[in-house]
């Protein structure tokens, strides 16, 4: 007898899978689904797009760092939607840091050849979001439809 198939991917993660957060930018639902396990859930990966179980619109894979605003907070969700649709759904991203930040060359530790810092904090207004997206476009991840 055939195993019942689970077309929506509900349930516990199987071998080589992990549960990861998805957010619907239309109805503001957040749910978890098993996806291929490729390591840390806050590190950039292709953004899987799945059908939202609540409204049937597109739901996007999010970083585990993403904290959903209240469903009724339309302004906050507008920012979430802008970042996510730009390919930046709260994954941890890093930028090179000028060595001058460590002070005069004669005083900085000689072992430091390059440095990076974690980009943050995440924007909270649309004006901040637009600036952030323009600046970090090069770190945007591609979208993949998973169902
Ligand atoms: Zn939805």
Explain what the structure shows.
The chain is of the alpha+beta class. It has one domain. It has helices spanning 74-85, 126-136, and strands at 17-24, 30-36, 47-51, 58-61, 94-97, 115-118, 143-145. The strands form two sheets. A five-stranded mixed beta sheet has the order 2-1-4-3-7, with no helix packed on it. A two-stranded antiparallel ribbon has the order 5-6. Mean pLDDT is 90; it is low at 1-9. The chain binds zinc ion. The site of zinc ion has 8 residues, from loops.
Element string (H = helix, E = strand): EEEEHEEHE
Helix-strand makeup class: alpha+beta
The overall average pLDDT, rounded, is 90
Number of domains: 1
For the biggest β-sheet, the strand order reads 2-1-4-3-7
| Count of extended strands | 7
Put simply, the count of helices is: 2
What can be said about this structure in brief?
The protein has helices spanning 74-85, 126-136; strands spanning 17-24, 30-36, 47-51, 58-61, 94-97, 115-118, 143-145. It has a five-stranded mixed beta sheet with strand order 2-1-4-3-7, with no helix packed on it. Strands 5-6 form a two-stranded antiparallel ribbon.
């Amino acid at each position: 007898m055939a195993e019942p198939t689970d077309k929506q991917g509900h349930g516990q993660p199987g071998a080589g899978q992990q549960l990861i957060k998805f957010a619907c930018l239309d109805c503001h639902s957040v749910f978890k689904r098993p996806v291929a396990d490729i390591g840390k859930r806050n590190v950039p990966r292709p953004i899987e797009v799945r059908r939202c179980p609540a409204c049937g619109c597109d739901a996007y894979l999010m970083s585990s760092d993403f904290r959903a605003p209240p469903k009724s907070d339309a302004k906050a969700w507008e920012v979430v939607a802008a970042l996510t649709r730009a390919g930046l759904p709260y994954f941890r991203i890093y930028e090179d840091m000028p060595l001058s930040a460590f002070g005069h060359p004669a005083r900085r530790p000689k072992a430091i050849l390059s440095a990076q810092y974690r980009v943050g904090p995440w924007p909270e207004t649309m004006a901040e979001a637009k600036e952030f997206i323009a600046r970090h476009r090069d770190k945007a991840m591609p979208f993949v439809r998973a169902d």
